[in-house]
Every structure is written in structure tokens, then in C-alpha cells.
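hey m, so remember when u said the C-alpha cells were messed up on ur end? i reran from scratch. heres the input so u can diff it against urs
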Amino acid sequence: MEDPLVQLSAVIILGIGAQWLASAIRLPSILLLLVAGFIAGPATGLLDPKGLFGDVFAPFISLAVGIILFEGGLSLRFSELPDIRRVLLQLLTVGVLVTWVTSALAAYFILDFDPTVAALMGAILVVTGPTVLGPMLRYIRPSGPVSPILKWEGILIDPIGAILAVIVYEVVSSGALEEATLVVVMNVFYLIIGDVVIGVIGALIMVWVLKHELIPEELHNPVSLMLVVAVLNVADLFQDEGGLMAVTVMGVILANQKWITVHHIIEFKENLRTLLISTLFILLSAGLTRQHIASMHWGEAFGFVAVLIFAIRPLSVVLSTIRTTLSWRERLFLAWMAPRGIVAASVSSIFAIRLIFKGIEGADEMIPVTFLVIVVTVALYGLTAPILARVLKIAETSAQGVLFVGAQHFSRDLGKALVRQNIPVMFIDRNSDYVNGARLDGLRCYLGEVTEEGVADKLELTGIGRLLALTPSDDVNSLASLRFEEVFGRSEIYQLPTASEGEESEGPSRDTRFRGRSAFDVSLSNRGLAQRLSQGFVVKTTKLSNRYDYAMFQQTHGQKAIPLFIFSPTGQMTIVVADQPPAPKPGDTIISLAPTM
């Protein structure tokens, strides 16, 4: 495979294919990406990333990591900070210092690394893996402050770790104590004055050009990418790897400003992130050589990883959570969640190359040890964290709750019926009369626009895992479905059918890609629902049995009753969908829209 086109194609095919397979078998994608890279690189020699990219290999890695961290910054919301500020600050200061020092000592004594290599190794392993943590947290759904703490820590600590590695590298390269002190002071100055300010300026420029409509809509995403790349490079001129902090700050500012909507930019960056992560992990793992693997002392390396997991991370969390309100369960879970990811892999590769060029002994061992840390931590945390969360009772074992969009009478009647079945519900509506009515019924409700930017972050969604849009407007229902698709997943987004699905309509049918699943029955569009409610149909709850099964239920109501929800004897809830006829069994409970008897 010496043809560059074939090698580039193989990188994309292997990367996206591994992501697809990981999604199908519900494994962390990073594991399959690393396996695919190992097979294509050191195992078979089919890929040679350094030969393929040459001198642009390291710059490409830095550029891709910067874009990934910008996308991570877009996911952070200031509204999460009041409850986690103290813990987060201590994790990013005390936790970073403890992890760096203890990891460096472990690398020196266990791996027998040169002091320079050990100090750099400790700095690199300060980072965690936000691209790994994100999918884990979405799957586990931990309650309370744990999820935002891990999310903020994972994203902010990556540029901090990279800059710490730069400072350590420059300090050990300077030699003299006076020069080393100056290096530290100047780098901290560059971090605060240079990187942060440049990131803020980049965000303000993007807000200004979009708010004043200086670029056409079809160029919003390309121009945003251009500005991210520009900020990354300008900040790197002030401080080596400082661009990572600048683009992270830029993403955070954009995510929390109120002047423009950035939802379309977030969606574009999420897709770009998936492609870049797939590409980077294939290239970085394929860049390992058989010599790297053969020369590594596996016993010492596994011992080093064990110390990281069982001693260093717990110690860091214990010292960082002193005098906080976190429970012992939450602290224990934080201590068991520190997977390493793309930043650790990329930064170790970059600095290993620099140390090898300087002729420092053992520098080439940094890369395989870092990859071993990534593989073991991702596999161990990925497999055990969901179990630990359930044992500690800090995870939602079954998020069956429903977020109702629209709090009109019918929606509230449905919500009360679900509450009686121990299903949590939440309502959102812009009509203050409907919201007040819901609150008088004892139902949680948020007064506001479902389409407003960042609305999902303002809602208390503990126990909520589905959305049901029931407003009188098909357009609002579809917009709500699109807004919350990334929160609940496409399969758990439902809305009333459109008139064209079950009735005659003069207009074209709606594109199902841009709406939720059609709930209940094709005849129960807004028009059909209004007709039945005007005829006296009400929400009913019915328990089926062997003597009174579904056939008798239909016979009783003259085939007019429409099942809406079905509960199994164990309490598992199913929302009936229009394209799948319901088949309730004896022992099930049905919530239906039925005529009064």
C-alpha cells in the first residue's frame, strides 16, 4: 500500500468503519480505532503515517486536536458552574499538580525513565479523555453534579495538560534555575494574557460577523472553521500549544453568548470531530512500530498503569474534593473516571519526537506506554463505570420519564396518568396559562420557548429519557424534535402525526428526517385529536388480564379507543407509534384515548 491515495482512503475507511462497529456492539469506539490502527500499522505494515504525511504529520495532529477541543468548548454551559465551581477549580489546580508530580515519580521509579522524560510523561498524563468521557456519560447518565464536573474537567484539563507539558519541556531544556523560573512565569503570562484573550477575541469576531450578516448562511460553517484555525495559529505564535487553550475558550464563549445562534455550527463541528477522531486514532496507533512494542517492559508498564488508576487518580480526587459538599458516593465515582484519549496520544507523540531529536534516552518509550494507558483506562472504565454507578445509586437505572412539549389540557391529563404509573414527567410551554395549570396539577413545568438556544441546559431532566411534542403546531413539534435529538437520541423523540400521514392533505408530506417518530396513531394528528376531544374522548388507564384482554378492550370501546402508552407488569413503558400496531398482553396496563362510557 505505497500509493498515498490508497493509504488515505484506508485511514478513512478503517476509522469510520470502527466507529460504526463500535456503535453497533456498544463498545467505546476508541478501543476499536486503536485495534484497527495497530493491525494496519505495526501488525501488517499496511500504513506508514510518518511516511505518508512527512513533516506535516505533527502539525496536522495539532490542528485536528485544536478543532476537537473547540467543539468540546461548545458543549460547556456557564449555568452548570454554580454547583460545581469549587470542585472544578480544585481539580484543575490541586488535582493537576498532584497528578503531575505523582505520575512523574511513578514513571521515574517504576518505568526507570530519565527524569526529563518522567516529568514530561507526568504532565501529559494529567489530561483525561473528553471524547471518551462524553459517550460514557450519555450512556451512564449519572445524577447530581458528577456529570458536569467530569465534562468540564475533561475538556478544560486537556489544554492545561498540553501547556504544562510545554512548560516542563522548556524548563528542562533551559538548564539554569534562573532561566527555568523565567520560563514558568512567561508561560503563565502567555496563558492568561495571550491564549485566553485571543480565544475571547476570536469568539467576538465570529459573533460580530454572524450578527451583522456579513457572510451568507451557507458559509457560516466554513468561516467558523477558518476563524478557529486562525485563532489556533495566532495563539501558537505566543505560546507553543497555546492554541489549544485559545480555541477551547473560544468555544466556551460562543456556547454561552446570547447574540447569535450557533446550533448549526455545533452540529457541523460534531460531524467534523467524529471524522477527525477516527482519522487521528488510526494514524497515531498505526505510527507505532514493532520496535516500540518489543522494547517495552510490559510488567513495569502494567504496574505503572495500575498505580495511575488505583492510587494517583483517587489521591487527586480526595485532595481536590476537601471541604466540598460531594457525597462519598460521588467522590468515589469521580475517582474511578479518568480515561485518557486523543490529547494524551497526540501530545506524547509530539514531545517524544522532540526528545528523540535531542538525543534523550528512553524518549521513544513514551509513546507505547501512553497508548497502553489509553487502552487499559478506556477498557476498564468503559466496562466497569456503568456497574459502579448503579451500585453507588448515582445513575438513572431507567430514564423512562417524558418531556412534554406543550402543556395544554390533553398533555396534562397524559402527564398525570404517567405520574400515577411512577413515571417522571416535565413540561415546557410558552403559554403562561398552560404552565400555571400544570403547576396547579402538581406537575413540573418550564415557561419558555422550546426552540431557544441552550434550553435543554435549563431543564432538570433527571429521570427524563424521552420527548413527546404535542403542541397544536406541526412546525414547533418538528423544531422541538430536532432541538432535543442530541439529548435523547432519535429513537426516543416522538411527536403527533401530521395530517398527511392519515388524512387527506393538499400539501406535500413532511420529510421524516426532520421530525420525530409519529406517536400513537396516524389518525391522531392535531385535527384528529381536536375532533376526538370535542366528542368527549378522555385519557383512560386500563389493566388487562386473561379475562379482560386486548380484544375485549377493543370490543368494549367499539374499536374507537386509541392506545397511547403500554406498561408491562414490570413497569417498562412503551410509547405506541403509528407505524407499529400495538399488541398488549394480559398483565399489561394501557393508557388510551377513549370515548366516555
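this time it looks ok to me. The beta strands are 401-405, 425-429, 445-447, 464-469, 493-495, 517-518, 537-543, 562-567, 573-575, 589-595. if urs says something different then somethings off w ur setup not the seq
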